[in-house]
């Protein structure tokens, strides 16, 4: 759970720098991913198949509908109208989980800077975007700890 909060806070605090790294990764994916290492290809495949944000959103949306029904919200209106106030119960958990998982993916892509030229490029892009600010992401990469 600590890792999840770390990724969420990194996604918020390091948003601009991670956006730059994301652009680099998306450009490379658009070019066929030829510069990716084997590990980076696996990470990209994992990211593209990741259903955790969707399932989190569905659980939040269904839970929101059940809670709103339980409290009698919109009880006198049509049954399908309960979907309208339930949308935030889907969107907010989905967005939190999506950005946390994406931060995990991008940090993992930058982690291999010793063995991959593309990872070095991603890290230098991130460092240039940070411009001397203290960065929890750079500390994490330098510490070399594995993301669980």
List keywords for this structure.
73% helix; 148 residues; mainly alpha
Structure characterization notes:
This protein is mostly helical and 148 residues long. It has one domain (1-9, 50-148). It contains seven helices and no strands. Helix 1 packs across helix 5 and helix 3 (38-48) packs antiparallel against helix 5 (83-110). The protein is elongated and about 60 Å long. The mean pLDDT is 88.
Number of domains: 1
Count of separate DSSP helical elements? 7
Order of helices and strands: HHHHHHH
Radius of gyration: 19 Å
Number of strands: 0
Global shape: elongated
Query: Level of helix content?
Result: over 70%
How would a crystallographer describe the biggest sheet? none
End-to-end gap: 10 Å
Oligomer category: single chain
Low-pLDDT segments: none
Strand content: under 5%
Q: Which structural class is indicated by helix and strand composition?
A: mainly alpha
Mean pLDDT: 88
